[in-house]
Amino acid sequence: MTARARVVGLTCLRCQTNFNEGWLFAGCPRCRENGVSVNLTVTLDLSPLHGITPESLPPTPRGLWRFAATLPLRGDHPISLGEGATPLIHLERLGKRLGLSRLYAKDESQNPTWSYKDRLCAVAVTHAVETGARVITISSTGNHGASTAAYAARAGLPCVIFTLASVPDTMKTLMQAYGAAVVACPTSESRWALMREGVERHGWYPTSGFVMPPIGSNPYGVEGYKSIA
Ligand SMILES: [Zn+2]
Q: For the whole model, what pTM was predicted?
């Protein structure tokens, strides 16, 4: 068996309390009691990876799953559309103007649905499948929604997206093209309230936050972003 990081739990970014439950998506319950909205982060025990360096990781698969050993997943059946391994583009002219001869942009638009959100959604939807989710949900007005819809489709799970009525039709169509049910709400607060019903009453799996004030995204999915570096 390949060595992997071990998930210790979810830790509060503010009070540092560690929680063993896997499905805590509304932030730290303890800080919430004190009126503070704050996200949790996945705590990993990296000791199983002792002695492993970036160079000793296998050359394949390329992209995000090359770093699977560092993700908070079992990882035996990744939900993937080929995300990661995006190119570094040398910005010669801009670099010259700024006096930076080695200025590069990492072109995350070359991910499957054209944004870095694909890294979050690949990890979050894989976690959803590994933990028995039946429906994926998100509040989004753009890329995050389209990406969630695509990865839910890849996993064969239904996807419900709460968006704003004011969002351009192009974006709604993009989310629908991947098979998601798109619900247009009048305000951000109303879409988060509806999403919260889905998560707390029906056990839907969220790839974004849904609390006020906002605390950020699904903590498992956020781990996918570190593969950019
Ligand atoms: Zn806390």
A: 0.95
What's the CA gap between 42 and 61, in Å, rounded?
Answer: 24
* Confidence check: pLDDT of 15 > 80: yes
Angle at 66 between CA 155 and CA 177, to 5 degrees: 30
Q: How far is the C-alpha of 163 from the C-alpha of 139, rounded, in Å? A: 6
- If you measure from the C-alpha of residue 33 to the centroid of ligand 1, how many angstroms do you get, rounded to a whole number? 9
- Ligand 1 center–CA 44 separation, angstroms: 18
Domain boundaries of the chain, sorted by first residue: 6-70, 132-218
Reported as type and span, the H/E element at residue 108 is: none
Q: Which of these, 53, 49, 24, lies nearest to 220 by C-alpha position? A: 24
Task: Kindly report, residue by residue over 107-131, the tens digit of the pLDDT.
Answer: 999 999 999 999 999 999 999 999 9
- Fold of the CATH domain 132-218: Rossmann fold (3.40.50)
Rounded Cα distance, 194 and 161, in Å? 10
- Show Cβ contacts of residue 147 under 8 Å, excluding neighbours closer than 6 positions: 113, 115, 117, 118, 120, 121
